Protein 1
Amino acid sequence: MKYHTACHILSAIIHNETGAQISGNQLGCEKTRVDFSLENFDREQIQSYEAKVNGIINKSLPVSIEILPRDEAFQIPSIVKLKDAFPPDIEEIRVITISGVDRQACGGTHVANTGEIPHIEIFKAENKGKNNRRVYFRFRNDQTDQGF
């Protein structure tokens, strides 16, 4: 739940700043990776995302779950891009909202508020081919922001 919600936060920050879409991810118990469709790769910028994610964690923002009728859910910009991925017989869509940060269709498990997530550290970032960048993060063992 903690890694999944942290992944939402990191992905929303990167998308809002670069327009990049998630092209893959792998949630784990000790680390998580997220792939983005991103043409350019700026390691300093990637490090700034860590501080922004941790700032959102510190705010203890609520994470809510709602079930919306299909037509209503497709009015949300972050969901309309997935419109063709939903089979036509799906009449309701589960939507996760991290207040002021992210709103996505998602069937996964999440924390009740961002304060339940430990601070993250981005420990690796790499190119994975044309327009594909991979970011690895894990939870910090200590709760200081002294870098790594």
Note: Helices lie at 2-18, 43-58, 70-73, 77-80.
Protein 2
Amino acid sequence: MADQFDVVVIGSGPGGYVTAIRASQLGFKTAIVERSELGGICLNWGCIPTKALLKSGEVYEQLDHLRDYGLSVEKRGFDFDGIVQRSRKVAAQMNSGVTFLMKKHKIEVVQGTARLEKGSPAPTVVVGSRKLTAKHVILATGARARTVPAIGLEPDGERVWTYREALVPKAAPKSLVVVGSGAIGMEFASFYRALGSEVTVIEMMPRILPVEDEEISKTARKVFEKRGIKFRVPANVKKLTKSKTGVSLDIEADGKAETLNAEVCIVAIGIVGNVEDLGLEALGVKVEKTHIVTDKHGATGVPGLYAIGDVAGPPWLAHKASHEGVHCIEHIAGLRPTNLTSPIPGCTYTTPQIASVGLTEAQAREQGLDPKVGRFPFRVNGKAVAAGEVDGLVKTIFDGKTGALIGAHMVGHEVTEMIQGFALAMTLEATEAEIQATVFPHPTMSEAMHEAALDAYGRVLHL
């Protein structure tokens, strides 16, 4: 009887543990299965420790500009091991927090690797010698870094890294090449450049940060280049060769062959879902491009089996996984679940930061809309000037027919803390008139959000 549950969640990342908490709140007897550390990749090897590293890099880089603030310091330097250890302590603290939450909500934590077998009313979850039966099983197994062993893009822990190796190296490399300019690639490029590494980023798409609005990615690239990051865009890696002292990458950029040399290569070319060795094939679960196919509530088509988060497909974001998990369990409980189509903001924690929600300008035009576009640069925002953080802008996109806010995009200092204002506005279906009528506090960088909304309709005040 001890191994009978109402809900079993497999995977304890932000999707899994949040789902388990909500299940417990709804009165379900819940278990969560984790093969490694509670909190999953995000808390232990992703979102949280990378932000700790990035903060260290940001503070260190600011030391170059102390004179701009009328300050001085006698000696500038860093303890790389100290930087890494701080990030690990932050991750450990968050892991402890999840452990506490599991106890608080009386969720049984089952340590080990799960495999599914046919069962009723839902598949049986086998973990070692235990067999967990439940009415509902929710897969939240996440994803891992994509590699391409055929051309040498495979981690070895020494010369070729994924995000995991990049978090805990013995020393900061003097030079590195980052393959992939999405959020993960650019965050590590930004961090190591802040510590003085020579950084080159390779991107096969026509521009960096390819999922972002084109104007935003172009603006970000200019600031990154000002910081000394080099780019090869568009470019394809043909082969990576390792030696005792570094790596050589044979690439093709703009139709020309080139060889790049560096101490280390970071592979950041996307992720693949963790679908192997779960027993999905025997159950008849449909998998496409390493991701489990589900309906809008997370159901897989196999009775009692659901999937949420990264393993269920893009966007591969922790907050999207949590949101999906809550929606899924509330649907199971027969409630009117949270709105699954709520706008999902995306954030990149580089220097400068990038944040966006909704449609890009190009997407709006492709959908046949008549977008009204507004922009406001931080260089004329009083708080940004006072803080010495003038790079970047806010861009708003409204539906020309209805006035609805359909997209917002930012690049600049701490914009990841501002984008939620636009996400909330979109969730509440705010129009340009309502945003323009909102009082924004002064002096704040958020005033640029207001001005960008005004600019879309020719009413900008400070430009």
Note: The mean pLDDT is 96.
